[in-house]
Amino acid sequence: MKKTRKFREIAVNHNEKTATLKKSQICIGMNMEEVQALAPFITPFHLDPGTDVYEEGDTEAFLCLIISGAVKIYKSYGLPTQRTLAELGVGETVGEMAVIDEQVRSASAIAITESILYAFTRKNMLEYNKIQPLAWGKLMHNIAVMLCKRLRRANDMIIEGGLTIDDANEITPD
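Given the sequence above, the corresponding structure tokens read:
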């Protein structure tokens, strides 16, 4: 399956970007000054349906906040073994793991509807830390909380599906 990466950067004024960020989960506990300082480090993009946000194995380190639309997360995208891991929507983020641990992407993320995403690169995250270290801590805490919620959801899915983790760390049926 041919994958497309056709991000189209879009113009969003600073005030609109700041207002949107302030309402998001990644900015919980941040004051307006901290969010205003974050806004220049965020790049808004438009994606058409079917556009890949990133592919499994990619090395680019960025996360995206979904402003509108929806993104599906796949393992082995485009292969006979393809599995849907999650469908994420407005207010959720994709790509947190790679931006934090700098490892290759463990799955693919594909826009399934027309979407607007706010991208935040690892490089920009580190720059933001230099100018707003306390706010950066709040941001990282919020990302950690979102990852914990997602992990708990995955744990519930494993248990509900009657799966266990064997000694080789592979998911197998009971």
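The chain has a mean pLDDT of 89. Try to locate this feature in the token string yourself.
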